[in-house]
Design a protein that fits this description.
The complex is a heterodimer of chains A (about 290) and B (about 230). Chain A contains ten helices and four strands. With about 290 residues, chain A is α+β, with helices and mostly antiparallel strands. In chain A, strands 2-3-1-4 form a four-stranded antiparallel β-sheet. The longest helix of chain A is centred in the middle third of the chain and has 44 residues. Chain A is elongated and about 100 Å long. The model of chain A has no long low-confidence stretch (mean pLDDT about 85). Classes of the chains: A alpha+beta (about 290), B alpha/beta (about 230). Chains A and B meet through helix 7 of A and helix 2 and helix 3 of B.
């Protein structure tokens, strides 16, 4: 595909042909980065939401009377364990609660002296809905002031956020695609003007518009594929570079593990898609322009 | 359009009261009316500026008349669907006065252009083209680009390109203008050979020696009208 045949139209002589691969390379690089960013963010949100969506936390207010507070906690624990859809529940030890609040406090000693609430951690059976409203009412009766925190709500917000980012990435890719189409249209129309004499001769010798369009579409395919392959290689290189730096900082796995095979295939399809879009754009531009010219 | 465009009974070219003017200027051609039978051979003569090139341009479909009707192979070109024009043009070989060779292509590739346009490819095409170029005396310049060829050599490449497809109608605008008399005679003999195979030939020329030597009928353009003179 990358081997060129000699064309009747001397494309090598026009500047528009020389610039197109660079413009396409930049477009494809930006598309690649938008897609990579969306995939990476989607992966992180999946990890976060899978950890949160299957859990509930019940917070029982701190009390000066420790024994009474523990009695209320035991009552809550019983209610939670009997609730439909709850797989398991346990009362967090005080050290675990201190560890949770520790990042926001200056020292462990400070946390020890604080009136910390008691926390019940509940795990929800996969695929089983929990009536959190009824649970909250029952818990409030057993331990006034107790609150049920449903992590699924947080997970839902993360998923919504991820979907928004996907939508933004999609809009970016579509806009880049539109910009690529406009660039190819401009480049093709410039080529038609520059090579008007040759095109006129080809017509006089008996060439159909389709014959001339084929020459332009092959040229557009060749130039855009060259630019697109270069652009996607740069984008993959950037992704590996970021993944390497993130891996060194202990923030993310390697780039190879960052994307699934399907996502890599999506990545690889970008230059092919761009080349096909360029080919079709060139064909339609030539056919429409020639029909108007004569 | 069907492939049997050429109907032996129909004139190859017929002009009915054709007039041509450029912009608001006077008519270059005025009430031109004639018809050419298949297999005929004519010289087109006349002073410079009398409209020889315009008449040829009308026939090879590079322009439309301002008024009147032009029929080619029995088809009125004013009602011819756009998609059918290429099929008609492929039956016409044209030797342009300014050659119109493609500078980036070799002599072989320039001559092979009409064959490529109809989809012919491969070694047989190259061999056929090479033989024709050898015939017009360019056997040693097959790979030469037009810029490296002399005016006469370029003219012969242009002629080879016009005849490579064995056209039904051959139009030549001053085809011997840049070659010496020997080559000129040889080129006219090539056109005669095509004519013997059924090609209708019209040669626009100022070369009165050539016209006198070959004694074919003349179409003399004068004051925008065509007069036929026997050879």
């Amino acid at each position: 595909m990358l081997i060129r045949r000699q064309t009747d139209i001397p494309f090598d002589q026009d500047a528009a042909s020389r610039q197109l691969p660079w413009i396409v390379a930049i477009m494809i690089y930006l598309s690649g980065m938008a897609i990579a960013g969306a995939i990476a963010l989607n992966g992180l949100v999946s990890v976060w939401s899978s950890g949160l969506s299957g859990a509930l936390t019940i917070q029982i207010p701190a009390s000066a009377k420790l024994e009474a507070a523990h009695q209320r906690a035991d009552a809550v624990l019983m209610i939670v364990r009997k609730t439909r859809g709850i797989q398991q529940a346990r009362l967090l030890r005080r050290e675990e609660v201190i560890r949770l609040v520790q990042p926001w406090l200056s020292s462990e000693a400070g946390a020890e002296s604080l009136p910390l609430p008691l926390l019940v951690d509940a795990r929800i059976a996969p695929g089983t809905p929990v009536d959190t409203g009824a649970l909250a009412d029952a818990v409030a009766k057993a331990a006034p002031g107790a609150m049920v925190e449903n992590h699924a709500r947080w997970a839902g917000r993360f998923v919504g956020f991820a979907r928004s980012i996907w939508a933004v990435a999609l809009v970016v890719v579509v806009l880049i695609g539109v910009a690529t189409v406009i660039t190819v249209v401009f480049s093709t129309k410039t080529g038609l003007r520059i090579h008007r004499r040759v095109i006129s001769l080809l017509h006089l010798i008996g060439a159909h518009d389709r014959y001339i369009a084929r020459q332009f579409e092959r040229q557009a395919l060749w130039l855009s594929l060259r630019g697109a392959v270069f652009g996607i290689i740069c984008a993959v290189g950037t992704v590996f570079g970021i993944a390497y730096l993130a891996g060194k900082a202990g923030l993310a796995p390697t780039a190879g593990a960052l994307f699934t095979p399907f996502q890599w295939a999506l990545f690889a399809s970008v230059p092919i898609g761009a080349a096909v879009v360029a080919l079709l754009t060139a064909r339609l531009t030539v056919l429409r322009t020639l029909r108007r010219m004569t | 359009m069907q492939n049997d465009l050429f109907d032996g009974e129909e004139p190859v070219v017929r002009f009915d009261q054709v007039g041509v003017r450029y912009g608001a200027g006077p008519e270059v051609l005025s009430d031109v009316a004639f018809s050419l039978e298949p297999g005929s051979f004519h010289f087109l003569t006349g002073e410079s500026g009398t409209g020889k090139s315009t008449l040829l341009r009308l026939i090879y479909l590079a322009m439309r008349p301002t008024r009147g009707l032009v029929h080619l192979f029995g088809h009125d070109i004013s009602t011819l669907p756009r998609d059918d024009v290429p099929s008609l043009r492929r039956r016409i070989g044209v030797v342009f006065q300014d050659f119109q060779l493609l500078d980036h292509l070799s002599a072989v590739d320039n001559v092979a252009l009409p064959l490529r346009i109809v989809g012919a490819r491969g070694g047989a095409v190259r061999q056929h083209v090479s033989e024709l170029l050898r015939w017009v005396g360019l056997g040693d310049r097959l790979s030469a680009k037009p810029a490296t060829l002399s005016g006469g050599e370029q003219q012969r490449v242009a002629i080879a390109r016009a005849v490579i497809n064995q056209p039904r109608l051959l139009l030549a605008d001053e085809p011997t203008g840049n070659v010496d008399d020997n080559i000129g005679v040889r080129l006219i003999q090539l056109f005669e050979e095509l004519n013997r195979m059924g090609t209708t030939v019209i040669i626009a020329t100022h070369n009165s020696g050539l016209v006198d030597r070959f004694r074919y009928p003349r179409m003399e353009l004068e004051d925008g009208a065509v007069h036929f003179i026997r050879g």
